[in-house]
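Entry for adenosine-5'-triphosphate complex. Fields follow.
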Amino acid sequence: MSEAARIWVVDDDHGVRFVLATALREAGHEVRAFNSADEALMEIASNTPPALLFTDVRMPGEGGLALLEKLKAAHPRLPVVVMSAYTDVASTAGAFRGGAFEYLSKPFDLDEAVALAERALDEARGIAEINTSTEDVLTKQSDIPPALIGQTPAMRALFRSIGRVAQAPLNVLITGETGTGKELVARAVHAESPRTHKPFVALNTAAIPAELLESELFGHEAGAFTGANKRHIGRFEQADGGTLFLDEIGDMPAALQTRLLRVLAEGEFFRVGGRELIRVDVRIISATHQPLEKRADEGVFRVDLLHRLNVVHLAVPPLRERREDIPLLAEDFIARAARKLGITPKTFGKAALQKLQQHDWPGNVRELENLCWRVAAMAPGERIGIADLGDGLRSRDAGTGWEQSLAAWVTQRLEAGETGLHAKTRERFDRVLLEAALAVSDGHRGRAADRLGLGRNTVTRKLGASRRRRSHKKNDAGL
Ligand SMILES: Nc1ncnc2c1ncn2[C@@H]1O[C@H](COP(=O)(O)OP(=O)(O)OP(=O)(O)O)[C@@H](O)[C@H]1O
């Protein structure tokens, strides 16, 4: 335990003030409690500041974030813990932007709060020399609507991480199953970052044919290749000063991985067919639903690129692991759908909501959103019952796990406008089958072939075709 310190607790809720102050006193600290920010500010003007301050956000009079701002202006090194029951991205990001040491969601565990106090005090002692000036960040408004919905502990933790990472210009890798909201998370990181007034440019690596990807990313000069009539400015240049979101990064062809790595290391590149060296300042946020570490182990994804992209990792939990959020999301989607469709608002009945909460949602939030739109358009009454959920839920319930995932994946790609899906899907299907069979046969092709009921030559041919395609020689032959 660290040595005794002076700690202030500011909260208009007597109960919180009392239990937190008592717990901190029991841990050996000298604690003063204030029931408003104004009181604490008056005290600080005439007295030595404490070593640590806990403050609530919403209080009559001056709020906690305004208190944080004033304290940080006068005492930049004073660690402040912001406490609140509101854990949307905007509030948490507002706190971190204002220089908060930590954001504590209410209700909190007292042991956790005391441990946090010790950590803040230790760090403040250790980093006294580090400049914690927050000048420009204090002025930014937090007026972005809370697009990301969620109140479960997992989502609250995610919002806190978003608020925290948004402030530093580090590359972020977002992982999570399809439809969990990775793109929304990327947008939130950008929106809450100092780059918010600069462009957010998104590129879905999987939706663009490999041979066009390089020019899409880095641009090309007129005449660089057949069909390149005009100069094209790539996404990197479009995103200059802002954020480039690379979705489905796991699908990036090997040659381009190498090029991307070089650009990230050097911060400059040539357009395809160009001679002018282009320098850009871009923050990269990438996303994947694939286990990239595993793909790196298999040699399909470059380890050094993974390290460069994965400076900070944000994991978005699947919807079935945060079922308590389903009613919130469903109500929001159905209300938005009604507004968009110009129809009378509908609400979910209790049984329907229960049914939604029981479903496994292999397509995650996107699947729930699609269902809500369908129901908004189709359900005859204003109160939605189980029968209105209809085939949507039933037919998906009928499939096995992987069929559901495949259906969700295909739907998403088709909605994104992707073509040639059959060949790609077949190749991936075969690859999974072959790799699994090889793994259980210790890499022995003959045995893998026997177990799959295929000839050994077929296995060799399929593996060859799969590898060739992966090394991006254009090949549309079936498998
Ligand atoms: N927490 C959330 N609150 C509100 N809407 C959400 C949330 N998460 C996802 N959505 C909505 O669900 C849909 C899918 O989200 P998004 O495209 O961000 O998922 P994704 O993980 O990037 O998917 P993919 O892996 O398929 O690219 C979007 O319409 C998005 O607005």
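NOTE: Residues 127-146, 395-399, 471-479 have pLDDT under 50 and may be disordered.
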